[in-house]
Amino acid sequence: MEETVEIKEGLQGVYITKSSICKVDGQEGKLYYRGYKIEDLANYSSYEEVCYLLLYGKLPNSKELVDFTEKMKKEREISEKTKDIIRKFSKEAQTLDVLRTAMSSLSADDGKPYSDNESENIEKAIKIIAKTATISAAIGRIKDGKGILEPDNSLNHSANFLYMLTDKKPDKDSEKLMDIMFILHAEHSSNASTFATLVACSTLADIYAGVTAGVAALKGPLHGGADEAAVKMMKEIGSPDNTENYIEEALAGKKKIMGFGHRVYKTYDPRAKILKSYLDKIKGNSGGEINKLIEISLRAEKMMIDKLGKSHGIWPNVDFFSGPLYLHLNIKPELFDTVFASSRTVGWCAHVIEYWRNNKLFRPLEQYEGSVDLVYKNISERS
Length: 383
Ligand SMILES: CC(C)(COP(=O)(O)OP(=O)(O)OC[C@H]1O[C@@H](n2cnc3c(N)ncnc32)[C@H](O)[C@@H]1OP(=O)(O)O)[C@@H](O)C(=O)NCCC(=O)NCCS
Description:
Blueprint: E1 22-25, E2 30-33, E3 36-37, H1 38-44, H2 47-56, H3 62-74, H4 80-88, H5 95-108, H6 118-143, H7 157-166, H8 172-184, H9 192-201, H10 207-218, H11 226-237, H12 243-252, H13 270-282, H14 288-312, H15 318-328, H16 336-355
Antiparallel strand pairs: 1-2, 2-3
The structure holds coenzyme A.
């Protein structure tokens, strides 16, 4: 007799481990990294400080932050081999595919990719975070038919990323906005890509293999691809006055509106609220096209909240407002998911390091529904 089992589709509601890295309160719309409110980190902190916090579990003092920042700077350069990998992809390649392959190459540059020593793994994490930003900027440059730029170590992580991508040192406002984007995307508990990272590393594969699995899982429009898809939709809407009709028709056709809804948040994603406040700041200061997209996004947000917010728990998530803000920073849609992956490297690494303290191989079960004991016939006897 077939055993009755309860299947939790998409592992919805299943706890996989204990963690002290990140708390997502989906009912109240609150997010904490290591106990600190995301709003405070966005307002007062820096990406480097947040990386330290996530990796070491505490905020750094001044000396610790200076030392950590210096370490990150020293790890920015990427090898000629990694640059060659990026250059060899065709311009048509999707940027996240290039990142996934370049990310794999980082382990080849490390004489000892696997370690069971936590301090050594933190050093590897710093290397991954710093180099992934350089790789992402290089991917953007090559896709645009431009040369790869070397890092500028007079700049912080965010300013240097924008510089390596655009060949222009950003002004203070753009630097702050980029930093906010990195901070808000740095970590989000056991989402699909973090889970993929943990699954890979639960086999005691090295941390580079883990983040490479994370990049692979981030690719789809239900996860890291949602911000690009949201901007695509805003462009399709075309004019602010067309917003309500478009959304009405899409919902009537049972289409999902990208950048809305979340497995955990059943209220406004706090990261989306922070991003919306930045949209309000840049509204009117951006180019005409971006201003139009901002107007469309604000009208779409209002309509979606009226229609599906309170009634269905479908609210804006981090990906809805990210697109116009990335565009404001001269980051093209095809690079959005790659920038997201760069930000998230720290979260992936922090989770691997924590999980390895009490590692258990992931090996779930499935209920078999097929046949058994079929008779194997020679190919000539099969109809
Ligand atoms: C994130 C997401 C995958 C979480 O979904 P989930 O917990 O698996 O829930 P489901 O996809 O099963 O959705 C549940 C219901 O809400 C609806 N829904 C969910 N997100 C929706 C959206 N963005 N627009 C319209 N309807 C949506 C579904 O159609 C479904 O309706 P049904 O019960 O009538 O079939 C989902 O909300 C989504 O696809 N959002 C768009 C992609 C996105 O923005 N991803 C980034 C997340 S940070």
